[in-house]
Write a sequence for this structure.
């Protein structure tokens, strides 16, 4: 069986790695944290003492790391993964990183005789554990096809978004829309309440009218109408303010480079930055609701 390597066994990576093991794949795992490696071993992976050792002779390497600097370092610099992997290996980076970093990683992989796809995910920790992530993939169609058995073991929706970096582009454009729509949803519920509608009444109307959106119907920031939403558990994440802010910063950086106007994206970034600066980075990204109500 072809050897797979998984590097980055944090909140997301641990569940993703466990699902590859569950699917019967031959996985060698590495993380800077020995405790995370032990957890992967308990799920069926083989341990490694370094990224380079984990990748030795691997046909595919999957990474789930915090940011672009970690990804470039692990594959092409101190991590030496590109040198260690088998000739022609496929590198699958599932981290959320800057479009430019992803495009640089594609070029460096080709220079090393390997190929790379950027395959960021949507879905969060629960979907990582359940194997129901959505993958948005940038890279060659043949590499997307080659990755499908591995991605299918970790997710249920796989999209080929186009060439190098397009997976990251899809991810940050989507999350910019999500950040803006969440704040707009909070403002709408707050306005409705101040004008005399309770949250359930406004939800019943707007969720069947033209204001309907995911931030309302799946993740309602006002407590009550959607029982599974973080608003019903004191805005514990879910998806944190800090993670939304990270994605908005990536989106704003990419927008500046592409000369795309994103005035509402910038406003959302400023709102989430203010929440993070006030110490609310670990709360769910629907928490602007509390701020509008003067309860934060
Ligand atoms: P995390 O901080 O929990 O995990 C990152 C892991 O990478 C840690 O275990 C850390 O020890 C490890 N690591 C860092 N540098 C390393 C190195 N040089 N070598 C080996 N291991 C190293 O982060 P996470 O929440 O799992 O997120 C990972 C990525 O997924 C991020 O890019 C994030 O933006 C993205 N993402 C997260 C979510 C979410 O809900 N948490 C959702 C979608 C996408």
């Amino acid at each position: 069986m072809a050897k797979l390597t998984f590097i980055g066994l944090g909140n997301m990576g641990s569940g993703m790695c466990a699902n590859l093991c569950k699917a019967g794949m031959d996985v060698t795992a590495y993380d800077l944290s020995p405790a995370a490696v032990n957890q992967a071993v308990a799920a069926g992976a083989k341990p490694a003492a370094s990224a380079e050792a984990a990748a030795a002779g691997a046909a595919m390497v999957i990474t789930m790391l915090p940011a672009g600097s970690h990804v470039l370092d692990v594959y092409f610099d101190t991590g030496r993964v590109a040198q260690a992997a088998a000739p022609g290996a496929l590198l699958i980076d599932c981290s959320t990183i800057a479009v430019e970093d992803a495009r640089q990683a594609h070029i460096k992989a080709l220079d090393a005789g390997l190929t790379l796809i950027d395959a960021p995910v949507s879905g969060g920790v629960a979907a990582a554990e359940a194997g129901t992530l959505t993958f948005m993939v940038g890279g060659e169609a043949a590499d997307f096809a080659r990755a499908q058995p591995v991605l299918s073991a970790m997710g249920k929706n796989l999209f080929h978004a186009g060439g190098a970096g397009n997976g990251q582009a899809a991810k940050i454009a989507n999350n910019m829309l999500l950040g803006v729509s969440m704040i707009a949803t909070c403002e709408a519920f707050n306005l409705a309440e101040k004008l005399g509608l309770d949250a359930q009444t406004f939800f019943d109307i707007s969720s069947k009218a033209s204001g309907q959106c995911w931030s309302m119907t799946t993740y309602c920031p006002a407590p009550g109408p959607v029982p599974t939403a973080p608003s019903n558990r004191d805005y514990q994440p879910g998806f944190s303010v800090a993670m939304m802010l990270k994605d908005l910063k990536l989106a704003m950086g990419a927008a500046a480079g592409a000369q795309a106007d994103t005035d509402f994206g910038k406003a959302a970034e400023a709102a989430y930055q203010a929440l993070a600066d006030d110490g609310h980075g670990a709360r769910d990204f629907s928490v602007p609701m509390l701020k509008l109500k003067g309860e934060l």
